[in-house]
Each structure stands twice: as structure tokens, then as C-alpha cells.
Amino acid sequence: MELRGKIICGLVGIFLFDLMGIPFGGLIGFVVGSLAGHFLFDKPREKASENAEFKAYQRRQGEFLYYVFSLCAKIAKADGAVNRQEIAHMEFLMRNQFRMNDRGRAQAIKIWKQAKDSTDPFDHYARAFYRDFGRERHHVINMMDLLFAVSAADGGLHPREEVILLRAAGIFHIGRLQYERLKSRYYQSRTATQQRWTPLDPHYAILGAQPSDSLEVIKKKYRALAMKWHPDKFSANGASSDAMRHAKEKFQQINEAYEKIVEARK
Fold this sequence. Notes:
The structure is a single chain. By secondary structure, the protein is mainly alpha-helical. Among the domains are: about 5-50, no CATH class; about 200-265, Helix Hairpins, CATH 1.10.287. The chain is about 75% helix and about 0% strand. It contains 12 helices and no strands. It has helices at about 5-20, 25-75, 85-95, 100-115, 120-135, 135-150, 160-170, 175-185, 200-205, 215-230, 230-235, 240-265. It is elongated and about 95 Å long. Mean pLDDT is about 75; it is low at about 190-195.
């Protein structure tokens, strides 16, 4: 609440009304001056402050929605072409959950299409989101829940979608119990054996391997992926700068995943 205008104008009122010799001039001057200060100075400032706060809130919400539609587009495309159920789910989010008007929906669709067609990997958007919203834990959990909802829109969980969900959990620093709790909202619970989630799961998923695989099997899978995504191979084939950046990020993920698994098995 703004008080500066009331105090300053109230003091001015005391001075002026005392000079005029009006009985109880100091008190009357302070009341009149305070009212003038409120309507002339404090109220406009309060209104401007409220407008600024509302605009900041809208801007923050807009940033969150940008990441929602970008990340959801990436996970929807993970198992191949985006299907009708996934599109219908996004329409539901726009109309019912986020209550967007036509202009907002048009902007959201544009963001969705740009992310879907972009060569930037899911991790690029996920890390940017966590960098901007990591301290707002409710937004992080809400985002993870939305990603599960999109992956479940077509009635199943494709292995490629689970790879991305596990990577998202790692980037968002979401632990095993919370991951399984969110997953159980959309999929049947795993068996007791399957529930033993570890921080290495995202790394196994990147290599297309299982914790039960021998190190020799994992090594073969690692080498095959490293050859496929080696930046030199893309450079020799005249790949675009976007494709080169994607290959470098993918190659780095593959190397990091293999190193983490080997280190854990020593």
C-alpha cells in the first residue's frame, strides 16, 4: 500500500491550514492533505503497481505455456507421427485446462508446430525449462505430469516415450518414488521387480540397453550408436548446422550414458 503521497500531502496540509489560522488547522489540514495525496499520487501508483504485477504474471504464464507445448510436441513425436489422440489431448488442454481464447490457441499451435519440426532435441527444451522454472517446484511437477498425460493420450507407452520421460525425470531432478507416483496416474503399476528404479535408468534407456545386459552387450550397443551419431560422419555428408548441433548433443549423451554405466559397474 502506497503511503508516501498521503504523508507528504498531509504535512503540506498541516503547514497551509496553520498559516491560514483555521481552528484545528493542523488536524484538518492533515486529513484533507492525506485524502488529496491518496487520490492524486498513491492510488495511481497502486494501480500502476497492480498492472505491472499482473503483466509480469501473464508473462510468466506465457513462458510456462511455451515450454508446455514445446515439450509436449517433442514427446508426442517420439514414437513417430503425431496421432489424432495426441492432437485431441492438446486441444483439451488449450480449451479446458488453460482456457485459451482463439488468439492464444493460434499461438500455442504455432509453438507446437515449431517445436515438432525443430531439429533441437527434447533435452534442449527440457534443460531450458528447468533453468527458468527449476526453483518453482510446483511448475516442474506439473510439467512432468503433463508429459505423462500426452504420452498416455494414445492409450499406451511407447519405449521411445519412456526414454524421454526418464530423461526428463533426470533433468528435472525427480526421484524414483515421485516418478512412479506420477506414472501410476496414467499407467498400471509395475511389478515389484520393475519398480526398482535407479538413477542409471535414463542412461540405459539412451543406449537401448537393460540393467540385466552384460557390459559386453552394452558396449556393442554403445559403439553402434556412437558410429551412427558421430559428428564427423554428419560433417562428411554435408549436414546442416542444425543437424550437426543435434548430432553433437546426441553423441555427447551417448558417451555420457556409457561412461556412467561403466563407472557404476566398477
